[in-house]
Specification:
This protein is an all-alpha fold and 79 residues long. Helices cover 57% and strands 0% of the residues. It contains 4 helices and no strands. The protein has helices at residues 2-8, 24-39, 46-62, 74-78. The protein is globular and about 40 Å long. The mean pLDDT is 81.
Length: 79
């Protein structure tokens, strides 16, 4: 199922070398969100799926407060 999602959004997988778990937790959390919110969602068209994913990404980057970034949204932290 993830392969279909990656192909739909033209996403290329990026994996660390074997035995290097540093970004695994972030990747696993991201994949869980994709699976629960988008793959198992009730979308009739890929356009609806894309619109929902774009809205999610906007909220994640512009509105959600991230404790690891001093409780700032990612966009504000990067400024």
């Amino acid at each position: 199922m993830l392969d279909k999602c990656f192909n739909t959004f033209n996403i290329q997988r990026s994996l660390n070398k074997k035995g290097c778990p540093y970004d695994n937790a972030v990747a696993e959390a991201t994949f869980k969100i994709i699976k629960t919110k988008f793959i198992k969602g009730e979308f009739i068209t890929t356009g609806e799926l894309q619109q929902a994913f774009v809205a999610y990404a906007y909220c994640y980057n512009h509105q959600w407060l991230h404790s690891s970034l001093g409780y700032l949204p990612e966009v504000e932290f990067n400024k």
